[in-house]
Specification:
The chain is mostly helical. It has 7 helices and 3 strands. 58% of the residues lie in helices and 5% in strands. Strands 1-2-3 form a 3-stranded antiparallel sheet. Residues 18-193 form the Cytochrome b561 bacterial/Ni-hydrogenase domain.
Length: 237
């Protein structure tokens, strides 16, 4: 059965399980890894920078896999909609919060933000394998590419960080706006795994959420597969 606490944290509300532990661990480990990678690059600690980059690549591959076989709210199919869904959500934002059914997982706009961040980070991690500063720092695959390709990918790697900064800043700003304007805390569910919704109001996707959920064993297998792929990839260098 779905994990719903009908008593709720307060009268008129109910607490529903949304994000599983693998998704939450992925989220916060990715935040730490990105911050570490940036700080290491700024300080010239390139060994740490590369190690954090490999960690980011592993986490991204895990999330791609978990987005296919993971728990219901984590699957891409549940939160990636078309332009109509995104426009409809924008129209709903103009309505009072009590007139809009709560979304358990990512809303249509948030879903596309997640996909965009994953793709840009994947491109960043991938291009980092081919980067070189022509002095002392070379990615593991520099020798496998032409000088032109290395220069192009090195430039791409540097420029993508600016885009990542913009996307992360936008992500944080939207979270703050939801908290201040909509009175909806998007951070707490990513920590506790649970989200509070009005009692009696049908949350989007709640009725469709299957009773069976992918567990920690499945997540461990997906993560180990992702780590093995990165190790094999680096072993070919």
């Amino acid at each position: 059965m779905n994990d719903v606490d009908t008593q709720g944290p307060s009268a008129g509300q109910q607490s529903v399980t949304v994000w599983d532990l693998p998704v939450r661990l992925f989220h916060w480990l990715l935040v730490i890894s990105i911050a570490t990678s940036w700080a290491a690059a700024e300080l010239g600690w390139m060994r740490i920078h590369f190690l954090s980059g490999y960690t980011i690549l592993t986490l991204l591959l895990f999330r791609l896999g978990w987005g296919i076989v993971g728990s219901y709210p984590a699957r891409f199919a549940t939160f990636i909609g078309g332009p109509r869904a995104a426009l409809e959500h924008l129209r709903e934002l103009r309505l009072p919060p009590d007139r809009v059914p709560p979304v358990l997982g990512h809303n249509p706009l948030g879903g596309w933000m997640v996909v965009t961040l994953l793709l840009v980070l994947l491109a960043q991690a991938g291009s980092g394998l081919f980067t070189s500063d022509d002095i002392m720092v070379d990615g593991p695959f520099v020798d496998l590419a032409s000088n032109t390709a290395v220069k192009t990918l090195s430039t791409t790697h540097r420029l993508l960080f600016d885009l990542i900064f913009v996307l992360v800043a936008t992500h944080v700003a939207v979270i703050a706006a939801y908290l201040v304007i909509r009175r909806e805390n998007l951070i707490r569910p990513m920590i506790t795994g649970r989200k509070t919704v009005p009692a009696g109001m049908a949350a989007e996707g709640l009725a469709k959420m299957p009773a069976r959920r992918s567990g920690l064993l499945s997540a461990t297998l997906v993560f180990c597969t992702a780590a093995a792929l990165v190790v094999l990839l680096l072993g070919t260098a």
